Amino acid sequence: MQRNPLPRLLRERAPAKINLTLHILGRREDGWHRLESFVAFSRTGDLLSFVEDQPLALSIEGPTAPAAGNIADNLVLRAARHFAESFPGAKLGAFHLVKRLPVAAGIGGGSSDAAAALRLLARANGVSLDDERLIAAARKTGADVPVCLAARARMMRGLGEELGPLLKLPPLIGLIVNPGAPLETRHVFARMNIPPGGSTAFGGHPELSSGMHVEDLVGALGKGRNDMESAACRLAPIIGDVLAVLSAAPGCRLARMSGSGATCFALFKDCKSAARAKKAILRAHPGWWVKSCVLN
Ligand SMILES: C[C@@](CO)(OP(=O)(O)O)[C@H](O)COP(=O)(O)OP(=O)(O)OC[C@H]1O[C@@H](n2ccc(N)nc2=O)[C@H](O)[C@@H]1O
Ligand SMILES: Nc1ncnc2c1ncn2[C@@H]1O[C@H](COP(=O)(O)OP(=O)(O)O)[C@@H](O)[C@H]1O
């Protein structure tokens, strides 16, 4: 008699997303904001595992699990439901999430978890990551989910659905710092107060390409901005403190907020100065979440 093989256990990392630039171009009549952002990823992140061929389920553990809200509303399950709509009859399964990233932090933890769920479901069902139905499920789950599917540096435009080619970056050595002030994305957009149909008068995005020398890349990034920074600082003034501490650290070349905040990143000239800054920041601000990273 032929026996069913044991269900497989599959694992995916859900890395933190960093908006190295975030230009808000305007607001559509339906209220959504048009943007242009250069996005990269850090290895720091959550971990999602999956046992295939089980009823759809999710369990969560980890230091930031309580902040992630109701399990039924979790973006992992939302992504899985959109996958099931796109692929009727597909194998589902039981997910387990180890949640480490700060929540409502501008680093797309929930979006990255959702994208990791879609990658796991794609692997279990032999679906390609380029499949339009998978990309549609990502879009329906959230604006940042499509860019988190490949989780590699690239430009994103529109609401996040227009993705540029994957870019090969020189090593960008940095720190990411969250001061523990959660900020909901929609509140920060609302605070920007752009009328529906309105455009912003800010300047264009710097040109970025694969294979740029690190000095040129950091120089180009320095000409960019995060247009959500001032609205986020008004809601959570501690962001100004984080940016001041990072900018003053010896060896810091660029300090900026990621996404709608409150997490900020800094790029350093080398690993040594980043490590020194990490130590000093943790000593002065033991409650802050501080991680070393190499962005790609
Ligand atoms: C701002 C960004 C930049 O990468 O990141 P985060 O700060 O959230 O990490 C993203 O655009 C966020 O993407 P994501 O977090 O997936 O947003 P969603 O859940 O789809 O939308 C949350 C809410 O933000 C507003 N929203 C979002 C994206 C956008 N382009 N325009 C908007 O106005 C909408 O009010 C929406 O209801
Ligand atoms: N897996 C998840 N991880 C984090 N937050 C989640 C998750 N699923 C749903 N959420 C909800 O999504 C919202 C945004 O969380 P998150 O993705 O961490 O924000 P951000 O993109 O600003 O870093 C939170 O209010 C949280 O309750």
UniProtKB/TrEMBL annotation:
Nucleotide-binding as UniProt keyword: yes
Active-site residue numbers: K17, D144
Residue ranges occupied by any GHMP kinase N-terminal domain in the UniProt entry: 74-149
Matching SUPFAM superfamilies: GHMP Kinase, C-terminal domain, Ribosomal protein S5 domain 2-like
Claim: Kinase is one of the keywords in the record: yes
Residues at which ATP binds: P102, V103, A104, A105, G106, I107, G108, G109, G110, S111, S112
Highest taxon above the source species: Bacteria
Enzyme class, first EC level, given as a word: transferase
GO BP terms: isopentenyl diphosphate biosynthetic process, methylerythritol 4-phosphate pathway; terpenoid biosynthetic process
Annotated pathway: Isoprenoid biosynthesis; isopentenyl diphosphate biosynthesis via DXP pathway; isopentenyl diphosphate from 1-deoxy-D-xylulose 5-phosphate: step 3/6
Reactions accelerated catalytically: 4-CDP-2-C-methyl-D-erythritol + ATP = 4-CDP-2-C-methyl-D-erythritol 2-phosphate + ADP + H(+)
Keywords per UniProt: ATP-binding, Isoprene biosynthesis, Kinase, Nucleotide-binding, Transferase
NCBIfam families, A to Z: PRK14608.1
Matches recorded under PANTHER family: 4-DIPHOSPHOCYTIDYL-2-C-METHYL-D-ERYTHRITOL KINASE, CHLOROPLASTIC
Similarity-based family: Belongs to the GHMP kinase family. IspE subfamily.
Function: Catalyzes the phosphorylation of the position 2 hydroxy group of 4-diphosphocytidyl-2C-methyl-D-erythritol.
The protein's name in its UniProt record: 4-diphosphocytidyl-2-C-methyl-D-erythritol kinase
Species whose genome carries this gene: Methylocella tundrae
